[in-house]
Amino acid sequence: MGNLLSHVVSGLFFLMIGLWHLYNHIKLHALHPKSYIALPWFPTSKSKYLELISTMVFCSISLFEELYLRPHNHQILNPNDGTLPYPHLAYMEHSSIFFTFFIYAMFAIILDCLKSPVRYELTLFLTALTYAQSFGGLHFHTADHMGPEGQYHLLLQVLLLVALATALLGIGFRKSFLISFVRSLVVVFVGIWDIFMGVMLWTPSLLAKDCFLSVDEITGQKVVRCSGEESLHRAKSIVNLQFSWLVIGMAIFGISLYLVLFKIYDGKVDYFSLDMMEEQEIEEKEEKDYVSYDIEDNNKPHNVQKVLNEMLPYKCTL
């Protein structure tokens, strides 16, 4: 993702997913604060799996770009000996991240279709895996992210660590609105920071004083370099200030959005938004309270899950 367009497109993806989750978590909590159960993803009125399908489509396009369009001669491997050239290592690293998101969305659909009793936990585990993969891909990136670009990526790693931590915490604290709120807001921040990074790094007029775009001799990619230690330190400090200001802005945005949506939805009832949450409640109640036996069939347990699945409003349809 070493250019303006790649950063803006990937940033918009995270921004839309984050806003979608943030809106739905706040709405769900405003409607039912006492019975709130966080969901790993949300259905729409048009298609239950639109969010997950959109994720798979975006990842497929990104994989095609990284593995075919961007490599030299559209070949990720060296045609002579089948090895992976050094300039193409970054493309493969980006592809690993996108493939992890694709796997997450695919298995989230499969787990929901099969009505797995632990689909919530496994889906959040996969969510955490995507953030861990993203963090690892940035932290151990082949590209030499030094200077201002390295500082942007370092702060992005901080956001990914927070998203990873909240995803793992969400597995054990399903009824915590604050964990879901923070995770969704951080995903929004990741998207905004990704877009902001692309614009600031690949727009020459926006570069810090005494910094300039240069072509890397090995990879052929454009990188930002500064003329001296003082200008480099100044550029990194400006990046830190930008991040600090955006943290304040995100806090104001998150709390303001909560207040607005709480004012709109407080006391209202929206059955569609609660369908998946009610599934979780039904399963929990079944596990705790219901054990039925068939006297005519040697006291074997009824297939309660099968009956419940037939009663649930959603089927495995797109």
TrEMBL record:
Keyword terms = Membrane, Transmembrane, Transmembrane helix
Q: Which domain of life is it from?
A: Eukaryota
Q: How does it sit in the membrane?
A: Multi-pass membrane protein
Main location per UniProt? membrane
Which parts pass through the membrane?
6-23, 49-69, 89-110, 122-140, 152-173, 185-203, 243-262
Query: Record's InterPro entries?
Result: DUF716
Q: Where in the cell is it found?
A: Membrane
Q: GO CC: one term?
A: membrane
Q: Does the keyword Acyltransferase apply?
A: no
Record flagged with keyword Glycosyltransferase: no
- Give the UniProt family note: Belongs to the TMEM45 family.
Matching entries from PANTHER family are given as: PROTEINASE INHIBITOR I4, SERPIN (DUF716) (PTHR46285:SF3), PROTEINASE INHIBITOR I4, SERPIN (DUF716)-RELATED (PTHR46285)
This protein is called what? Uncharacterized protein
Give the organism, scientific name: Cannabis sativa (Hemp)
